[in-house]
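## retry 2 of 3
previous attempt timed out at serialization; input unchanged, resubmitting
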Amino acid sequence: MEQLFTALKKFAFLNEDLRFYLEGALKTTPHKKGDILVEIGSVCRRIGFIEKGLIRGYRYKRNVERTSYFLGEGDIVISIRSFFTQKPARERIEALEDCIIHSITYDELKYGYKTYPAFQEHRAEILQKYYLLSEEREDMRQLRTYERFLYLMDNQPHLAARIEDKYLASYLGISPYTFSRHKSRYTERGAKKPR
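## retry succeeded, writing output
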């Protein structure tokens, strides 16, 4: 749980009262690879901080999985629309690795915002971070397919090392075959670089 408090301190000052509240409210849950954290049609009741592991959020379009995002250590995991509206989720969130997640309920989060004004600073900084990440993903998806692949390899190489190609292809909006072709091209390009 200390990683969460370290992360919060990077966003804004974390006073002792707020820390004490969060220590009491947060629930630490281990999840196994393959566990579904949020199911399509269910209501997302918790917002969590990933201490360990990797998750992905995805939807179905014409019965095909479309990966929206990957989140790992130090990230906040949430089905945004479902959590903030308390209505059924349109996406599924799945653990791609064994995970440890510290989470808080919707009501506990709202109480924290009302009771500890300093928590609003953390909220604003976190919202800004994830809005920017969302815009970067959208910008990446506007690129041509090989440029999308290069963006992934240049900006998120840690994902390529931890995630199955089929999920990466889904994230980039390309077929596994096209992903494999781009990967071969990229590997050949790297092999031809002068030493």
